């Protein structure tokens, strides 16, 4: 009986060791925390090109977002100025300006 109990306990332990990491992986969010949702799903799956990153950075700077991050402190995300600049960044990023910048960088 004691041998059967030890074997059962070992099998249970092995099952937990296999199942725990799998359940952890399946519970992970598919979108990173803090993602703004401006990238399409295909670019997220394949990764971004250097030109895409540079075009996005250009939109970030054009909207004035870089001004909020030039300080040693975290910006006030709730300030009117930050929200206005962020809205402009999202507009630029989703609009034709981003595609124009991307085309320019690909040349």
From TrEMBL:
Residues 1-27 form the signal peptide. InterPro entries: DUF4148 (IPR025421). Keywords: Signal. This is DUF4148 domain-containing protein.
């Amino acid at each position: 009986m004691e041998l059967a109990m030890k074997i059962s306990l070992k099998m249970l332990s092995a099952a937990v060791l296999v199942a725990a990491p799998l359940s952890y992986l399946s519970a992970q969010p598919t979108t990173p925390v803090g993602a703004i949702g401006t990238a399409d799903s295909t670019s997220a799956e394949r990764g971004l090109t250097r030109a895409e990153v540079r075009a996005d950075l250009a939109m970030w700077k054009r909207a004035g977002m870089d001004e909020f991050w030039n300080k040693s402190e975290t910006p006030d995300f709730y300030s009117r100025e930050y929200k206005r600049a962020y809205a402009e960044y999202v507009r630029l990023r989703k609009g034709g300006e981003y595609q124009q910048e991307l085309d320019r960088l690909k040349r």
